Amino acid sequence: MDWFPYFLQQLINGLTLGSVYGLIAIGYTMVYGIIGMVNFAHGDVYMIGAFQAMIMLLICGALGISWVPAILLLMLIVSVVLTAAYGWTVERIAYRPLRGSSRLAPLISAIGMSVLLENYVQLVQGPRPKPVEPLIRGGFQLMGGGADNSFVVQLGYMQIVIVMITIILMGAFAMAIGNTSLGRQQRACEQDMKMASLLGVNVDRTISLTFVLGAALAAVAGMMVTLYYGNNDFFMGFVAGIKAFTAAVLGGIGSLPGAMLGGILIGLIEAFWSAYFSAEYKDVAAFSILVLVLIFRPTGLLGRPEVEKV
Amino acid sequence: MSAAAATSVALPDDTLLTVEHLTMRFGGLVAVEEVTFEAKRRQITGVIGPNGAGKTTLFNCITGFYKPTTGRLSLHRDDGPPLLLEQMDGYLIGQKARVARTFQNIRLFPGMSALENLMVAQHNKLMRASGFTFLGLIGMPGYRRAEAEAKEKAVRWLERLGMVNLADDPAGSLPYGAQRRLEIARAMCTDPVLLCLDEPAAGLNPRESAELNHLLLEIRDQIGIGILLIEHDMSVVMGISDHIVVLDYGRKIADGTPTEIQRDPAVIRAYLGEEEKDDR
């Protein structure tokens, strides 16, 4: 049983990382579901969320607020609201004017938006990574560390917070899509946008709300990463975004439970690969999954096969 | 003949929809040309004509799928001036003008249950009651009441169509006839003033078709809205229409009660060809 403590530690790390990917992946999968485009700027919206959270953390420090729950709540509210506004704006200026044109146009526009957001943050925040003091330290020592000097398995408080928040948000989200009028409207637009519009559904507003919700979840992910790794830079959204996209494809793009599952799987794969093979090649492992899924199971794990529309 | 009798009681100010000089061109093709007619409240107005006569194009203009090349479509209301449908955005035609329609090839939301299909149609009311979802999520009583009412209405329609046992089945897997009925119910759940039905009897067997007639007459008499009906099945059109408009090659060739239409030489020519080469 020598291998078990090390394995357990990777499992904990992988689940934490996977929760973050899952939250970002929901934004990709919802947007793809409703308008059939990959929002390549979504990773950068997540980066914006991380920066908003960091700025709010520093403001709290400057104002002398030291009670941790209050700081967390302020970070959450500010980051979610402002990032949601970014999400709405991106859709409004970069995608809505292109609706009804070719499928390629919004895709290129999304890449442009991604470059724009990265350069904007590089310009106003500087290119150097910004270290952030961890707010929540410590954790449980689950195993080891005794007289025999065996491997120590740590479960950080921050890791618990991340996984708990992710579970709560995903649960609330699944409820919202399944049982509210907004969720029904979204699914209706997904299945037949013209028909939904004939029934009086304001399709433009539904799409805007989809972007706002996706951005809000990405903001939560950004805030948690800021507190967990504490190292923000303007380029952080690029790789995280593409990995979350991989997670969405792995789970079956367009499917919400798929995005959650895919996120967790990609997080686990990355953690185990870094631990047992090579940390340098962890991105290669994640993207090889993307290639393999696209070749052998393009609909993903939980995706429905594409049905020809008549 | 009770249908024909209803025509004479309709008041002159009961006009619901006026179509004036409607023309729709696609490049060089004229699909609808200078069509003018009226549809009244509490009446079923049938639109017939051979294949390619422009019936569906006419519907697409009325429901905002197409912007007509020229012409005017006014929807008359009890309160306020008439709405000009040709100038309205697609979703407002459903939301504000309250024109609902069904399709020749059924367009339900196949992945949603029958009940949910009927709930989507009522979402405008629900969105307002839920404070655009955010209040709804925290379970405000007003929202829960609105949601319960919407559900009750949906269930009432399912009962009326004898489909309560199918409420939770995905709409895409329902039997064909049930899908047809569900699509009409969904259109009715938007509280329309004008219901446009594009070949609702297509693919139905004679018994289902008779049930459909009964349903449409019930909607006309009990709910009192106007129905615009495209149909090839003559037993349906002649049986229940109060008024019939005949199109051929995009033009209106006749307009009148079923009995008048059946005797109209232009209609007979369009359907059966010239009398000389009558090859029936």
TrEMBL record, chain A:
Transmembrane spans: 20-38, 45-65, 71-90, 157-177, 207-228, 234-253, 260-279, 285-303
Annotated membrane topology: Multi-pass membrane protein
Protein origin, superkingdom: Bacteria
Location, primary (coarse class): membrane
Protein localization: Cell membrane
Family annotation (InterPro entries): ABC_transp_permease, BCAA_transport_permease
Pfam families the record matches: BPD_transp_2
Keywords linked to the UniProt accession: Amino-acid transport, Cell inner membrane, Cell membrane, Membrane, Transmembrane, Transmembrane helix, Transport
Protein family according to the UniProt entry: Belongs to the binding-protein-dependent transport system permease family. LivHM subfamily.
PANTHER family: BRANCHED-CHAIN AMINO ACID TRANSPORT SYSTEM PERMEASE PROTEIN LIVH (PTHR11795), HIGH-AFFINITY BRANCHED-CHAIN AMINO ACID TRANSPORT SYSTEM PERMEASE PROTEIN LIVH (PTHR11795:SF371)
The protein, known as: Branched-chain amino acid ABC transporter permease LivH
TrEMBL record, chain B:
Domain of life, source organism: Bacteria
Gene3D superfamilies (UniProt xref): P-loop containing nucleotide triphosphate hydrolases
SUPFAM superfamilies in the cross-refs: P-loop containing nucleoside triphosphate hydrolases
Similarity comment text for this entry: Belongs to the ABC transporter superfamily.
Organism: Dongia sedimenti
Keyword tags: Amino-acid transport, ATP-binding, Nucleotide-binding, Transport
A GO molecular-function descriptor: ATP binding
Residue stretches making up the ABC transporter domain: 17-274
Record protein name field: ABC transporter ATP-binding protein
